[in-house]
Amino acid sequence: MNDCLFCKIIAGELPAYKVYEDDRTLAFLDIHPVNSGHTLVISKNHSRDMQEASVDDVCAVMATVHHIAPRILAAVGSEGYNLGLNNGRDAGQVVPHLHFHIMPRFAGDGHHLWHGKSIEDKELAVTAEKLRMAIAV
Ligand code: AMP
Ligand code: ZN
C-alpha cells in the first residue's frame, strides 16, 4: 500500500498532527477542518472502505472514536459532534483508506445536516422489503 496517503502517515513517511495512537489505530487532525478539532480516525491496517475492512478493524476504530471524541469536545469547547464516513467515491470519499471524521459542532456554526424528503408510506414499505431481502442473503 505504498502509495496510500494515510498508510504513509502511519509509517511516518508523511507528517500529520497526530492526537492519539494505539497499537491498532491512529487519529490526526484533518488539514482542512470543518471546525476546530476536526479529527480523522483510521485503522493501521489498510482497507479502502467499510466493505474491505474487517469487523475487528472497524471495532478498533470505533473504540478509538468512543475514547477520544468526548475528550476532543472538551478540549475545543464543543458539546456535540458529527461522525462522518464518506464511503466510496460517489459518497465523496477522496482518500481510499477507511477513515471516520469526528467533527465538533458549535451552535450557529453554519453547517447543515442532510435534508430529508417527503415520501409515500408505500414506497417506504417497498424499500424496507427490498433491503430486508438483500440483507438476509
Ligand atoms: P474524504 O475521503 O472525502 O473523507 O476526505 C478526506 C479528508 O482527508 C479530507 O477532509 C481532507 O481534508 C483530509 N486530508 C487529506 N490529506 C490529508 C493529510 N495529509 N493530513 C490530514 N488530513 C488530510
Ligand atoms: Zn492505506
TrEMBL record:
* Pfam families in alphabetical order: HIT
Give a GO biological-process term.
sulfur compound metabolic process
Gene Ontology molecular functions = adenylylsulfatase activity
Known PROSITE patterns for this protein?
A: HIT_1, HIT_2
- Which ranges belong to the motif Histidine triad motif? 97-101
User: Would you say which domain of life the source belongs to?
Assistant: Bacteria
Q: SUPFAM superfamilies under this entry?
A: HIT-like (SSF54197)
| Residue span, HIT domain | 5-112
**Where are the active-site residues found?**
99 (tele-amp-histidine intermediate)
Protein name, UniProt field: HIT domain-containing protein
Q: Which organism is it from?
A: Candidatus Uhrbacteria bacterium RIFCSPHIGHO2_02_FULL_57_19
